[in-house]
Write a structure and sequence with these properties.
The structure holds two protein chains of two kinds. Chain A starts with a helix and ends in a 13-residue tail after the last helix. The longest helix of chain A has 31 residues. In chain A, helix 1 runs antiparallel to helix 2 and helix 2 packs antiparallel against helix 3. By secondary structure, chain A is an all-alpha fold. Chain B has a domain of 92 residues: NADH-ubiquinone/plastoquinone oxidoreductase chain 6, subunit NuoJ (Four Helix Bundle (Hemerythrin (Met), subunit A), Up-down Bundle), CATH 1.20.120. In chain B, helix 1 packs antiparallel against helix 2 and helix 2 runs antiparallel to helix 3. Chain B starts with a helix and ends with a helix. By secondary structure, chain B is mostly helical. Classes of the chains: A mainly alpha, B mainly alpha. Chains A and B meet through helix 1, helix 2 and helix 3 of A and helix 1, helix 2, helix 3, helix 4 and helix 5 of B.
């Protein structure tokens, strides 16, 4: 297998995730797009780890999985609080800090 | 099977998985139904796990299924249920003007793909990339013991933080 086929797939998934983060207004959907981006990075890490025959790529992928789980937990808690205060998770309505 | 046969089988598997993943990812960022988006996320995460197994990273693949599909997606479904008054086709899940987002994503894809194609040309993965769980464990508990402990504390902090943020009053 070529290294590039994994890297290109990962780049495509990353770009789709970027589109999701920018185009979505629902907070939960934005968090899902962030998961897409993190997974694209994980594919890269494991592919490079295999390429240089090093275990470090896999270990870092495991760390990223852990951090992503923590991020989703805190992110959804924040969204829950936002929903409780404003009855909406529409991110374009959360503009209190807009100048 | 011969070595060539294995390689062909691997490439066919990669093509099928990659096609499914890209389709599901596109639907994930375009669908108007929030629950469907979570289910498309399951497909993408399962595809990533399959790719990990294809690259011989068995422990990461299994962890991906356990943590992501088992826990994170369930968390997302809870998040959807707790923040939505109505599940189904939604208006206002997307910004009305999406062209800048499309342009930004296309730019990111173009630059990244150009960089990896020029940088790694036709570099091949080694024929046997299998790694055992024991190797991963040895590495985590020797070389990466400090980051491992830091991550454990981070998880605890995230747990407490999420409870403090989300509880009433």
């Amino acid at each position: 297998m070529l290294l590039n086929q994994f890297l290109i797939l990962s780049a495509v998934l990353f770009a789709i995730g970027v589109y999701g983060v920018l185009a979505r207004r629902n907070g939960v959907l934005v968090l899902m797009s962030i998961e897409l981006i993190l997974n694209a990075v994980n594919i890269n890490l494991v592919a490079f780890g295999s390429y240089v025959s090093s275990i470090s790529g896999e270990v870092f992928a495991l760390f990223i999985i852990t951090v992503a789980a923590a991020e989703v937990g805190v992110g959804l808690a924040i969204l829950l609080l936002l929903y409780r205060n404003r009855q909406s998770v529409d991110l374009s309505e959360a503009d209190l800090m807009k100048g | 099977m011969t070595v060539l046969g294995v390689l062909v089988a691997q490439n066919i598997a990669f093509g099928v998985i990659a096609a499914i993943m890209v389709f599901a990812a596109l639907r994930l960022v375009t669908t108007r139904n929030v629950v469907h988006a979570a289910l498309f996320l399951v497909v993408v995460l399962g595809g990533v796990a399959a790719l990990f197994l294809l690259m011989g990273a068995e422990f990461v693949g299994i962890t991906q299924i356990l943590v992501y599909i088992g826990a994170v997606v369930v968390l997302f479904l809870f998040g959807i249920m707790l923040t939505r008054t109505r599940i189904g086709n939604e208006e206002g899940t997307d910004h009305p003007r999406r062209l800048p987002a499309v342009l930004a994503a296309a730019l990111v894809a173009t630059i990244t793909i150009y960089a990896v194609v020029t940088g790694f040309g036709d570099a091949e993965l080694p024929a046997d990339t299998r790694t055992t769980t024991a190797e991963v464990a040895d590495s985590i508990f020797s070389t990466y013991i400090v980051p491992f402990e830091a991550v454990s504390v981070l998880l605890l902090a995230a747990l407490i933080g999420a409870i403090v943020i989300a509880r009433r009053n």
